[in-house]
Amino acid sequence: MSTGGDDRIAVEAAAMRRALELAANGPARGVNPRVGCVILSPDGTVLAEGWHRGAGTAHAEVDALGRLSPGDAVGATAVVTLEPCNHTGRTGPCAVALLDAGIARVVFAVADPGEHSSGGAEHLRAGGVDVDGGLLAAEAEEFLGDWLFAARHHRPYVTVKWASSLDGRAAAADGTSQWITGPEARLDVHRRRAAHDAIAVGTGTLLADDPSLTARGADGDLLDAQPVPVVFGRRAVPAGAALTRHPHAPIIVDGHDLDADLRDLAKRGIRSLFVEGGPTLASAFLSAGLADTVLVYLAPALLGGDRLAVGDLGVTTIGEARRHEFAAVERLGDDVLLVAHPVSSSAPRSSTPERN
């Protein structure tokens, strides 16, 4: 770009913000990330824009290049929210497409974490392209949050939720639990369900409560975004269960190896999982160190008894306590929502899924 250094940074930053806006046009769910691209002429004029529309379609860079005539991109700058990929999946490598088009400079926000799809920056530099990474990285990291987590850790981001009385009970002595919390808290739960790719219960909760696992508004109608229902356990979903009427077919996983189950869900395009399946399942995720966020809806009531919201976590002494830190405390009608994260992350390091 033939402008001065400060001017170039400002122009490229504006283009990156536009690329993030374009990326938001892509599907919010699926195995591939939402990516946007803006191609600038040497004087900073926008030549073309593009975004990724889902697995099997052109990536953002190729989508933008496809809007230009041959030769129009020679000497231009490509500003893209994610490092151009460097492998062939359902589509070809974007790094090669940019080189073939004559792009002279590439600016990206976040490095591609894929084991095979990464390396686009090095490939471009080897081809003589000027490459810079990290522009508006914080904004792009936040935008790509769940996808980046799943790509880096090969499992979905897991939120474990429960509602309890002040004394930590999830139900009364006779097993009744509807409703511990009030309508404001329940509406917040449905909003958070809709923000996740999937919602999970164990077969015990499925058989005992017959939950619909849908996300609904204040009027009871289904929200546009619905999480995919996931059932942990070996027992089949009963033929007449409410779950059989869910907009999405349920995914059944074994439940005896949570790490393997989560890896399987990630391969299916599940990047965020809302665990709402009762004390047994919640305790399993907490014990395994697989709860990235804990949501506790606390009602101003006392129930007593042994119907605890969380079961045995393998903690035998105070020094073994699973320490968390509060991220937020929110009043919801008569109830309080506590949002907490583990003090130390337990997210595994592993190979990562690729973009297709």
Write up what this structure looks like.
It holds the Pfam family dCMP_cyt_deam_1. Keywords: Hydrolase, Metal-binding, Multifunctional enzyme, NADP, Oxidoreductase, Riboflavin biosynthesis, Zinc. InterPro entries: APOBEC/CMP_deaminase_Zn-bd (IPR016192), CMP_dCMP_dom (IPR002125), Cytidine_deaminase-like (IPR016193), DHFR-like_dom_sf (IPR024072), Eubact_RibD (IPR004794), RibDG_C (IPR002734), Riboflavin_Biosynth_HTPR (IPR050765). Converts 2,5-diamino-6-(ribosylamino)-4(3h)-pyrimidinone 5'-phosphate into 5-amino-6-(ribosylamino)-2,4(1h,3h)-pyrimidinedione 5'-phosphate. This is Riboflavin biosynthesis protein RibD. The chain is α/β, with parallel strands linked by helices. It has 2 domains: 5-143, 3-Layer(aba) Sandwich (Cytidine Deaminase, domain 2); 154-342, 3-Layer(aba) Sandwich (Dihydrofolate Reductase, subunit A), CATH 3.40.430.10. 27% of the residues lie in helices and 21% in strands. The protein has helices spanning 5-23, 60-65, 94-101, 120-126, 137-143, 145-153, 183-194, 203-209, 258-267, 278-287; strands at 36-40, 46-51, 77-82, 105-110, 130-133, 157-164, 198-202, 228-232, 251-253, 272-275, 293-298, 324-332, 335-342. The strands form 2 sheets. An 8-stranded mixed β-sheet has the order 9-8-7-10-6-11-13-12, with helices on both faces. Helix 4 (120-126) links the parallel strand 4 (105-110) and strand 5 (130-133). The chain starts with a helix and ends in a 14-residue tail after the last strand. The relative contact order is 0.13.
